[in-house]
Design a protein that fits this description.
This protein is of the alpha+beta class and 256 residues long. The chain is 17% helix and 29% strand.
Length: 256
């Protein structure tokens, strides 16, 4: 059951207006109405069977009045067209479901009239809204899934993670200032080559290759150029040729 709580003051010589929002198509809507006497004080003595209500939807004709009957108790289940005094001039009124089916975005005007006294008519403007996700609005926790894939929560490799964190901390500490950055970049020790750099070689690998070409042993015959590491093993070789006009060295490759 959807409940709407609103305060409508019915006072002598004045018309009271209010505004609320209700989900379009809502059923069992209950309003709580404060009815005041001629002096503007909450009136505990209003006869609920003297109350009528009307309503009009946007672009529609005024619906005929509905005479209100007495509700059995303040905690009774919703019963359309009933009302009961609660306390201090506060009355519960159960409105018809037809009042709230005009369509999303439209308005319905609710009219409460105390025909038995001099209290004036009261109007309540209702905006009909689309359905909403109650969990999102109320902040409720969604239901827990029936099953959870245990593999999703498998233990990580904490040893590798700790090592990686240590490496990051070491590198970060070295780069804390310009001097540290210079040391980290230019102070790195070059390793011996095991082959020629590929097309996607890093800048450091390219510089290392050029350095070793100028430093390490190299031999050349009429048909082949060979490049050695510091221990005298062939790292890479390239085919060479000379046709009397042009000397050609092919791309370095792995030792055959």
């Amino acid at each position: 059951m959807k409940k709407l709580i609103a305060i409508i003051l019915l006072s002598v010589m004045a018309v009271t207006f209010g505004a609320e929002i209700v989900e379009n198509g809502a059923t069992s809507v209950i309003l709580y109405v404060v009815i005041c006497d001629a002096d503007g004080d909450p009136n505990e003595s209003v006869t609920v069977t003297d109350l009528d209500f009307f309503w009009v939807e946007t672009g529609a004709a005024l619906e005929s009045d509905t005479s209100i009957t007495a509700c059995s108790s303040s905690s009774a289940a919703y019963a359309t067209g009933t009302a009961i005094h609660l306390e201090e001039g506060l009355y519960r009124v159960d409105f018809d479901d037809d009042c709230f089916d005009g369509g999303v975005g439209k308005q319905v005007q609710l009219i409460v009239d105390d025909v038995g006294t001099s209290n004036r008519t009261s109007f309540l403007s209702i905006l009909l809204t689309p359905a909403v996700d109650a969990n999102k609005v109320a902040g409720a926790t969604p239901a827990t899934p029936a099953t959870i894939n245990a593999a999703t929560f498998a233990d990580p490799n904490w040893t590798d993670l700790a090592t990686n964190i240590d490496d990051i901390e070491t590198d970060t500490a070295a780069m804390d200032d310009a001097a540290g950055m210079k040391t980290l970049v230019w102070g790195s020790t070059a390793t011996d080559l095991t082959g020629e750099p590929g097309d996607d070689a890093t800048l450091f690998e390219m510089l290392n290759w050029l350095y070793k070409l100028s430093r390490n042993k190299m031999t050349q015959t009429a048909t082949e150029s060979q490049f050695y590491d510091v221990d005298g093993a062939i790292i890479s070789e390239a085919t060479v040729s000379d046709n009397g006009t042009t000397f050609t060295r092919e791309e370095y490759r792995a030792d055959d």
